[in-house]
Amino acid sequence: MSTSDRPLIQLTNVHKTFNTAAGQYNALKGINLTFSQGEFTSIMGKSGSGKSTLLNMVTGIDHPTSGVVRIGDEELHRMNESQMAVWRGRNLGIVFQFFQLLPTLTILENTLLPMDYGNIYPPAEREPRALELLRMLDLSDMADKLPAALSGGQQQIAAIARSLANDPPILVADEPTGNLDSRTAERVLDIFNQLALQGKTILIVTHDSSLARRSTRRVLICDGELVNEHIAHALPSLSHVQLLKLTKLMTPRRYETGVTVARQGALDAGLFVLTGGRVDILRQGEAKSLSLITTLLPGQYFSNLELLETELCDLTFRVTSDGPVDILCLPLAQFDQWLVENPSAENALRRSAAERSGFYCPQPRARPQEPRVAPFLATSYQDPLQQEG
Ligand code: ADP
Ligand code: MG
C-alpha cells in the first residue's frame, strides 16, 4: 500500500452499466469518491440505489464499465483475475450480510482458511494468530465449534475474525448487521470502531441510521449518484431525491475572513450549506451593537426562510476571523423555484425556520423554561435514511 498522503481509495468517474432484459441499466453514474486511511464510512441509500455495486467496485468483485478505481498504488483494472485474488487476499477483509462461514469447518478452521490461502504468515504462526483474533472478539470458547452451534451474532463476529486473518488494511462489509439483533449489531459496530482506531479503513453498507451514526463518515447514494455529504448532513429531513437535486443545483462560493455572507434584506442566495470554515450569526442589539448568537460549522445550513421569519431582529451572517469559508449556494430565484417543485421540502424547511427563529430572536417574555438547544446544533446526526422502510 502507498505511504504517500494520497487518499487510500480513489474512485474516479466510475460508471457501471448492466445489460438487462429490459435494456441497459446505469447502476453507477459517474462516482467520484475518496477514502482516507483510518476512515470509517457508512454507505447508505435505499434498496437498489447502487450500494452493493459500489462496494463491488472497491473489492474488485465487479469492474466499472468506465472510470478508474485505485487502491494504494494499484489500479484495479490493470490486474488479471489471479493477480486480483492475491491482492485481495492481502489487502481486503470482506464481510457479507450472510456470514458465509464454511459449515463443515470449526470456527478456528474457518479463521485459519484465509491464512492458508494468503500464505503471508508462516504456518507455525497461523493458529496462535487465529486464536488471538478469536480471543480479541470474545469467541475463544467457540473456537472448536461448528458454525451451526453459534448464534447469528456470534457467526457474524466469527466472519469478522476470518476477514481479519491476514491483517488487511481495508475492511469492507455489505450490510453486516442486516440479520443481527440491535445489541449484537452495536457490538459489531464497536468492533469496527476499534479497528478504525487501529488504522484500518472501513467501508460498511448499512440501512440502520443509528448504526451509521457510529461511523466517522456517511456517504449517501441515490439512483447511482452521490449526494453531497455536507448537504445530506445539513438537511436530513429531505428525501434522497431532493438532496440529490440540491447537490446538482448548488454551486460553491468562497467568502473571505470577516465578509458578510448575508443579512436581513440583503442576500443573493436562498440556501447556504457550509462546507468549510465557520460563520457567525449576529443580532443587531441596541445602539447598533452586534451580539453573537451562535457559530455555524461545516454541514450546517441557513436559508432566506429564516431571515423572513426573523425580519424584526436584524440578523447578520458573517465569516469568522479565523479564515475564509466555503459555502454551497442556491441563488434566490432557483431556491424559490425548487421550493415550488418540492412542497414537502418547503414544509420541512419552513417548520425548521420557525423553530430556529425562536433561537435567533428569543422573545424575552416567552422564554421557555428548559435550556434551549440550537435546532441546527443537535449533536445526534439525524440521518436521511430514516425515510427508508
Ligand atoms: P443496493 O445494494 O443499493 O440495494 P445494488 O447495487 O445491488 O443496490 O443494485 C443497484 C441496481 O443495479 C439495482 O437496480 C439492481 O437491480 C441493478 N443490478 C445490480 N446488479 C445487477 C446485475 N448483475 N445485473 C443487472 N442489474 C443489476
Ligand atoms: Mg445491496
Main sheet record: 6 strands, mixed
Beta-strand percentage range: 25-35%
CATH homologous superfamily label of the largest domain: P-loop containing nucleotide triphosphate hydrolases
Distance between the termini: 39 Å
Helicity range: 25-40%
Spatial strand order of the main sheet: 6-7-8-3-9-10
- Spell the H/E element sequence: EEEHEEHEHHHEHEHEEHHEEEEEEHEEHH
Shape from CA axes? elongated
| Small molecules held by this entry | adenosine-5'-diphosphate, magnesium ion
* CATH architecture level-2 label of the largest domain: 3-Layer(aba) Sandwich
- Which secondary-structure class do the elements indicate? alpha+beta
Find the CATH topology of the largest domain: Rossmann fold
Counting structural domains, the number is: 2
The CATH class of the largest domain turns out to be: Alpha Beta
Low-confidence stretches: 378-386
Q: Tell me the radius of gyration.
A: 24 Å
Number of DSSP helices? 12
Mean of pLDDT: 89
User: How many β strands by DSSP?
Assistant: 18
Structure description:
The chain is of the alpha+beta class and 389 residues long. The protein has 2 domains: 9-227, Rossmann fold (3-Layer(aba) Sandwich); 245-364, Jelly Rolls. 33% of the residues lie in helices and 27% in strands. The chain has 12 helices and 18 strands. The chain has helices spanning 51-59, 81-91, 107-118, 123-136, 152-163, 182-197, 209-212, 229-234, 240-249, 304-309, 332-341, 343-360; strands at 9-20, 23-35, 40-44, 66-71, 74-75, 92-95, 170-174, 201-205, 217-222, 225-227, 251-255, 260-263, 269-276, 279-284, 290-296, 301-303, 315-319, 325-331. The strands form 4 sheets. It has a 6-stranded mixed sheet with strand order 6-7-8-3-9-10. The longest helix is centred in the C-terminal third of the chain and has 18 residues, at 343-360. Mean pLDDT is 89; it is low at 378-386. The structure holds adenosine-5'-diphosphate and magnesium ion.
